[in-house]
Amino acid sequence: MVVDLPIFTGLPKIHKTPWGIRPVVPCHSVVQGPCSEVLSIILKTLLGDFPQILTSTKELVHNFETALKPKLRSMLHGQWKDRIFICTADIEGFYTNVPIKLCREKLGELVRQKYGRNREGKVKSDYVMNLFDIQQNNLIMKAQVNGEWHLVLQKDGLAMGMPAAPDIANLFAAWFEQRFPPEFYRHCLVFKRYIDDIFCLVSANSRDHCVEILKNYNIPGLKLNWEVSETKSVFLDLEIWRNPFSHNHQLKYRPYHPIVSLVTISNDYHGALDTRSSCFVQPSNLKCTGSPLRHILL
Hints:
By secondary structure, this protein is of the alpha+beta class. It contains ten helices and eleven strands. The strands form four sheets. The chain has a four-stranded antiparallel β-sheet, with helices on both faces. Strands 9-10-11 form a three-stranded antiparallel β-sheet, with no helix packed on it. It has a two-stranded antiparallel ribbon with strand order 1-2. A hairpin with a 6-residue loop joins strand 1 (9-13) and strand 2 (20-24). Helix 5 runs antiparallel to helix 6 (119-136). The two termini are 35 Å apart.
């Protein structure tokens, strides 16, 4: 087995305005990798206990056609016309902003809740938490800044690129989602989350009321960027819309694959895009004239 230190790289987010860089740390060959693979397999058995966690947009569409359609058909037209809002959000820097000590605590609670608090359950939960510690502790990576290589120790946040990272992030958020105020769920006709992307169909008296309801989605350490629309939105690879004046009361959807046009990037960041290497870029290759690297990596 080949073991190596992961190298910090960046993936340009050309669909954002202004464009930025998504930190990427490929951990496919780190020594903690095998432990993370085992941890991922175990934690996936817990995800089924949380129906809000999506595995694909196909699952969301199935929810539209089965659970949601009867609710909309029985709705009064006035409510459909003026009180339905399509809301989407993304969690900003999900993996890197998860408070790791709090995450370990909540993950431990979920594991004990799953396996019980007797002797057998304690053995299983201790094993899971040991795997978690192995994955997270002593995670060292290489980073090249201004032409010089440095060894960097990650002290907080989830280990990016590890097989279990999406499962841990999902369960960390799910612990808090279980405890949201009843008002949030009372007004949400649909509430689904795909890792750091959230979709809600909210019934509210007004847009301001809808925004107040969404404020109930609060997880320590995480910041959400909500978009609220009365008619349409984009969620993952779906375009979702409705006609408020239609008497059919249907939420419609279709695949969404926009044509992304590459635009000229400021000379300060010339060369950041490299199509020959699948648009990956080393942070050291960025010309940081008048702009610190930390500002570029937002």
